[in-house]
């Protein structure tokens, strides 16, 4: 028997086989959970469908998280198909690529709004929609990064957004706690995914982690998936509102 036998998980943020969300989906499925997936744009539809089918899942829905009607449609389909939900994975972030270089100072009002909308407000909106469907002992989680707490070159507006996201995790944990639903974040170390492509200085950051982190290595999507499994399962029934670092220990180090 798997740890998640009979549980239903809705997963936002699979773009390809390297996505952190896909590693999480595989881990949840291995432990017996059924997964449903969403994709952000039509361009991603076929790839996400192929990945979903590879684990016998046939619920693959369009959902740009900036569109209320797509978010509502997603949850109304989940309600029809499943009636209830146990696990929600939020693995979504976006900022304009021009704002992920240079200075935070140059962030535009529009770029700030977009980054906050996609990367922070979406967790609030998805949690609200999920709330009436979530069974007791449900688990909601999101992905964050150290750039929320410390200045990381080029992370800029995403750092501000992730700080907001981490605060949202705490408030949502308080909102959802009375119904027995937990809300947490995993703060992952740098991983080579689509969201890391073309980021200037990314190679140096990977090298620095390998040199300085207590474990002297970088993390993989599977390292993240292990903690996601823990957070989704009854192994973590007493854990909510937390930011758990999966970064080979990098964040604990001083200079
Ligand atoms: P990824 O590019 O595979 O995943 C990001 C996802 O966000 C994609 O699936 C993309 O389609 C989705 N997305 C963007 N805009 C959207 C929108 N408007 N509506 C719906 N979905 C949208 O990269 P990843 O590294 O797996 O990123 C997943 C999460 O992990 C992000 O929150 C990211 O900030 C976080 N994270 C990544 C790293 C890293 O180094 N890769 C480290 C720490 C945290
Ligand atoms: C992203 C930018 C700058 C530095 C960065 C990152 N470092 C790491 C990331 C050091 C690890 C990856 N990360 C943690 C993210 O949250 C990435 C979010 C992201 C990435 C892109 C790239 C393509 C694009 N918009 C993006 N929006 C958000 O156009």
Core attributes:
single chain; 255 residues; alpha/beta; Rossmann fold; seven-stranded parallel sheet; 7 helices; globular; binds nicotinamide-adenine-dinucleotide; binds ligand IMJ
Biggest sheet strand line-up: 3-2-1-4-5-6-7
List bound small molecules. Answer: nicotinamide-adenine-dinucleotide, ligand IMJ
Globally, the shape reads globular
Rg over alpha carbons: 17 Å
Low-pLDDT parts are: none
Structural class based on helices, strands and sheet pairing: alpha/beta
Span between termini = 46 Å
Q: Count every beta strand, where a strand is a DSSP E run of 2 or more residues.
A: 7
> Strand percentage, roughly?
15-25%
Along the chain, the helix and strand elements come as: EHEHEHEHEHEHHE
Task: Describe the sheet with the most strands.
Answer: 7 strands, parallel
- What is the correct CATH architecture? 3-Layer(aba) Sandwich
Q: How many DSSP helices?
A: 7
Name of the CATH homologous superfamily: NAD(P)-binding Rossmann-like Domain
DSSP helix fraction: 40-55%
């Amino acid at each position: 028997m798997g740890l998640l036998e009979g549980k239903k998980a809705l997963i936002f943020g699979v773009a390809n086989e390297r996505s952190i969300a896909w590693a999480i989906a595989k881990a949840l499925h291995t432990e017996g959970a059924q997964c449903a997936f969403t994709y952000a744009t039509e361009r991603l539809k076929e790839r996400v469908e192929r990945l979903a089918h590879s684990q016998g899942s046939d619920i693959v829905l369009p959902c740009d998280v900036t569109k209320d009607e797509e978010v509502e449609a997603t949850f109304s389909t989940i309600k029809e198909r499943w009636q209830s939900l146990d696990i929600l994975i939020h693995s979504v972030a976006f900022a304009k690529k021009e704002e992920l270089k240079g200075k935070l100072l140059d962030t535009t009002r529009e770029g700030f709004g977009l980054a906050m909308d996609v990367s922070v407000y979406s967790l609030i909106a998805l949690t609200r929609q999920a709330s009436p469907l979530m069974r007791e002992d449900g688990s909601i989680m999101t992905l964050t990064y150290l750039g929320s707490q410390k200045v990381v070159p080029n992370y800029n507006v995403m750092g501000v957004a992730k700080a907001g996201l981490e605060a949202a995790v705490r408030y949502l944990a308080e909102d959802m706690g009375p119904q027995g639903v937990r809300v947490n974040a995993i703060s992952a170390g740098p991983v080579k995914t689509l969201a890391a492509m073309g980021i200037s200085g990314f190679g140096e950051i990977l090298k620095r982690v390998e040199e300085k982190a207590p474990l002297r290595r970088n993390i993989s999507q599977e390292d993240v998936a292990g903690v996601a499994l823990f957070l989704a399962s009854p192994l973590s029934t007493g854990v909510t509102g937390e930011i758990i670092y999966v970064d080979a220990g990098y964040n604990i180090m001083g200079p």
